[in-house]
């Protein structure tokens, strides 16, 4: 998707983003049509009866799960689209804005995976004490605050 979007923008320009969004919107519609026309085989044993669509739609848990799936797909689409947006915005920063953004994104990814990993290792090493693991993970916000202070001091100088 990212490659196709990049080719589209380099060919037709960033100002035509609405056209690309409409093109990408066609794919889920086509998937829905294919799904509606596909045969779905029953998972029930002989003599068992499943839920009808009407019975399924009358269940509250169905709508809760549908809402959760909607939020998940929304988060997924935002996750796909934000790197391109930030990359385009960071291109205006002289001195390698896109490269700096890539390094910052990599650091964020490492922090997001390293924090829970550290908490898990520490808590498992002290007899599965999750409080100690979370206490050890405090090092990440402390490092963030220290980095902010260092940046402030370097700007003052």
UniProtKB/TrEMBL annotation:
Membrane spanning residue stretches: 23-41, 61-82, 132-151
Keyword Membrane: yes
Source organism: Blautia obeum
Keywords: Membrane, Transmembrane, Transmembrane helix
Protein name from the UniProt record: MFS transporter
Superkingdom assignment: Bacteria
